[in-house]
Amino acid sequence: MIRITELAQEQVSRVVRSGDLAVDATAGNGRDTLFLARLVGPGGRVFAFDIQERALRQSALLLGENELAERVTLIHAGHETMAAHIGGPVAAVMFNLGYLPGGDHAITTCPERTAAALAASLELLRPGGVVTLVLYPGHPPGKKEREALLEYCCSLDGAAWGVIQVRLLNRRGAPPELLVLKKFTDIS
Q1: What whole-number distance in Å separates Cα of residue 129 and Cα of residue 15?
Q2: Domains of the chain from N-terminus onward
Q3: pLDDT (tens digit, 9 = 90+) per residue, 162-172?
């Protein structure tokens, strides 16, 4: 089975190196945070954002179990605030949108805040870096968020950004989708 989250990690693993800065814009249960912490190595740093304390506790527990907590800064704030927390260029930013698995489904990411976070991500991203967005259009807020992000991505300058969309065509309903944005190294 093809998993969209694994495809996102595959794209990120192509650009993140030991010593890099990376962002998990939606910490959730900490899986992407842990993945990024392994990639950046002992000299790197991961900034992980979530608005839910429960998500940050779960992420901290997972990082502690894997002895990688020292590589991560957990931030109890919305991802749209990332520019206020991160100073240097980052190699990658990962978004896994929607709601916290096993959590309150009424608490979801929303188009306006995610679009602001994406804009901040693009400003922070170094040349050659990537942003991944896992979209969940199977619930009403997720569908609106998908539409807004697709519109935003379609408006980006094609000379500066490469944007791909991955969809599972033979799954029923509205399966998860992936957007990958790459900042070209030869931006003039």
Answers
A1: 6
A2: 4-183 (3.40.50.150)
A3: 999 998 888 88
